[in-house]
Structures are given as C-alpha cells and as structure tokens.
Amino acid sequence: MLNGPAINPRPPPQTQVRTAGSHPHARVYPGSAPPCRRHTTGKKNTKASIKVGALNMKGRGKPEDDKWFHIWQVMREQKTGVLIITETHLDDEYKYNVDSLFKRAMRIEFTPDPEAPTARAGLAFALNRNTVETDNVSTTEIIPGRAMILKMKNVDGSNLSILGVYAPNRPYQNAAFWRDIKAWYVAHRDVDRPNLLGGDLNFVEDALDRLPSHPDSKASVDAFDELKTYLGLMDGWRETYPTTRAYTFMQAPSQGGSQSRIDRIYIKRDLFEDSFEWEMQAVGIETDHRMVTMRLTTEDAPTIGHGRWVWPAHIIRDKTLAKIIHEDGLTLQNELSEIAQKEINGQWNPRHNAQTLWADFTSKMCADARKRAKIVVPQIVEEIAETKNKIDLIENDEDLSEEDILLSCVVLQEKLTKLEQKRHRDTRLTAQVRNRMEGEVINRYWTGTN
C-alpha cells in the first residue's frame, strides 16, 4: 500500500451541472452530466464462435473423485461451449446428482445404455452456460446409449444440429451401427441433417490414423462412408492436416502401446470454411483418450475483440516484476504528494493530476507484466509444450520406422499424460483453496457460485 498525504481526487469547484429531477444530495460533476448506464435486457450474450469438443471420459471414476468435477474444470479452462462425452456410465439418479452440483454452470443431456447404464456405454452432451445459449435446446435419441442429436442455437441465432455418437468396438456391430443411423435419417426426412457429427467412432477410415498402420474393417469403413456421403459430412481435422500423424487413443504399454485417431469430429462440407482451430489435446482426466475440439462460427456472426487481459497467475509472485512495480510505486507516491500540495493551493492541472498519474502508473504496470509474462513461463507449461513438440516431430519423422515411433511415443505420451494430470490437479487445488477461504463469506466469489 502506498502511504502519503490524503489526495483530493477532484479539481477545485467549477461550474456544476445537475440534471433535472436529480436528488438534491446526489453527487455532481464538473462540466457535462455523466451519461446514464445502458440498460441491459439480461439475455446472455454468446461468443462469436462456439467451441465444440468430444471426449471419452472412460467411466465416471471413483466415488471420492468424481470425474464430472474434472469435466467442468476442463470445459471452463478451455472455454468449451459443447462437449460430446462418451462412455459416461450415467443413469437418471446420478444425472440428478450431477445437475444439483452444476445446474448454474452446465446443462447436461444424456442417453444411457438401456441394459447396464452404470457399467457400460452412455452418451451425453455438456453445455457450458457461460458461453452458449442453453434455453432453446432439444435432443432426439436415435440409439439408446450410443447416438443422440442435440439441437441448439448457433451464434447467429440459426439452428445448429450436432449428432453425438459412441460406436461399438466390434467390427460387425460397428458397421451395423452406421447402417442403423443412416436408416433412421432416411425414415425421418423431416429431421434436419446434422451440421456436426462427433464422438468415439471406434474405427478409422485411413491406415494413416493407426500406429502401427493397418486398415480397419472394410464393412465399417464402407457403412460409415455411406452415412457420411448421405449426410454430406467431412473429416475437418484430416482436411486441415492432410498428411499429419496424430492420435487420440493410446493403448497401455502393457497391451502393446498401439495408437489410433478414433475420436473425431465431422462437419458439413458447406460449413467447413466457417470452422477453425481443429485440435486434439491431452486433458488431466483419468482416461486413455485425448479430447478433440474445433470452433464453429457463421458468416453473420458478430466480430468481437480480444477481451480483457488478465495477469497470468505465475507472475504474481515474480520478484523481478515486484521490484519494478515497487520502485515505480515509490516514484508515484512522491509525485502524488507534490500534486496534493499544489491542489491545496488551488493549482490543478487537467493534464497532470492524481488521476493521470495513477492511469500512467497502472498502464506501465500492465505493460511491464505483459513483457515479464513472455519471459517467465511456468516450468510445467514449458515441459508440456516441449513434450508435445517431441511427440509431433517423432510421429511425423519419415526416417523412423513405425516400431521406433511406437517405442518412443509410448514413453512420451505417458509423460505428457502425467504432466497434464499434474497441471490439472494443481489448478483444481488452487480452486479448492479459494473455495475454502471465500466460499462461506458474502463476497463476489460467493455470489458468482451461488
């Protein structure tokens, strides 16, 4: 805290303007009356693009460490608007419990396995209430526990239809699954064809998407190709990266360590130009799948800015930055003392006063923080970035044999998974500490969570 004499934040009295009808004791300002705050309707403003993801959560986890807490953390950190979640093992009772915990943050729509909802299969859509409209949402079940349509509003108010799928693993069941979905759409011609299809498809179209490379069941490939053609869909990630090797499912080293890109998102061909940021990434959840994501906008979507810059948490305790701010603060304190004395004597300068000095100080402080943030990178973030780069280089090295790639990537993928889980746990611990300190006190944090 800066110590010094009290500072008069306003200039000496000048001609004052009071608006008609104002309270006689209301605060008045020199010059023109301040503009009124614009009235807001209370309707949530959506972003100019929607981030859609797909993740196999591999069951709901242990009772003492529910995976839905981690699902919400990932969606919040990644600003994911809609997440297609497979292998949820969700039933009505458990879904009620999840809703009671996250009703202000997420809207969940699901379809359980009809025979063993808590033991196998299960498909869900999780919608982030902070980034997408969740009022005008409807779902249509095609195959219980395996395929469901989500209908919602896009950023421009148009209808957006997303088909979530969790295909069976056995080849003959997988092929029948795609044929059944096509037959359903043929029988329901009044239903809009999906803009997006995503989830765990449990097969690949191209041998390039497996390590070691090998073609999948021809029956599955052909059946899906017929569905894909009928719906007018295309593999957005593969279209963006035609020759890149990358995988979303990693088998355990004890089982051979093979990898595949079975988690995918497909998009309508005429919408591909409106999509961007086709990515796949490891998450800190206990699963052997990576999350695949993309962003979808529209031609009429509003243009938005970059948002308000926020200090990265890792520079708050940076000693070098703290020293710079401390020295600038001492200089500011001396200047404010001089300004205060001049204002007492009636010498107020509109271009050089307490307000302008404070504005200059905060601007320089943020500029220094931005520069420092580019230099000081958290060790775990740096390790994650380096590991990802190594994996990408090895997977796409044409001079290496598939056996060498597999052996190298198994180790690196395991390392990346552990790093992501550590980063995820650290973030979660920080949130838990804050909740412990502020969760029972009436403040901004409390009102935001309640």
UniProtKB/TrEMBL annotation:
Gene Ontology terms: cellular component: nucleus
GO biological process, one term: base-excision repair
Pfam families in alphabetical order: Exo_endo_phos
UniProt xrefs under SUPFAM superfamilies: DNase I-like (SSF56219)
Compositional bias of kind Basic residues: 36-46
Keyword Metal-binding: yes
Keywords recorded for this protein, A-Z: Endonuclease, Hydrolase, Magnesium, Metal-binding, Nuclease
Domain Endonuclease/exonuclease/phosphatase: 71-273
InterPro entries noted in UniProt: AP_endonuc_1 (IPR004808), Endo/exonu/phosph_ase_sf (IPR036691), Endo/exonuclease/phosphatase (IPR005135)
Keyword Hydrolase tagged: yes
GO molecular function per UniProt: DNA-(apurinic or apyrimidinic site) endonuclease activity; double-stranded DNA 3'-5' DNA exonuclease activity; metal ion binding; phosphoric diester hydrolase activity
Spans through the membrane: none
Co-factor requirement: Mg(2+)
Sequence segments annotated as region (Disordered): 1-46
Family: Belongs to the DNA repair enzymes AP/ExoA family.
Protein's name in the database: Endonuclease/exonuclease/phosphatase
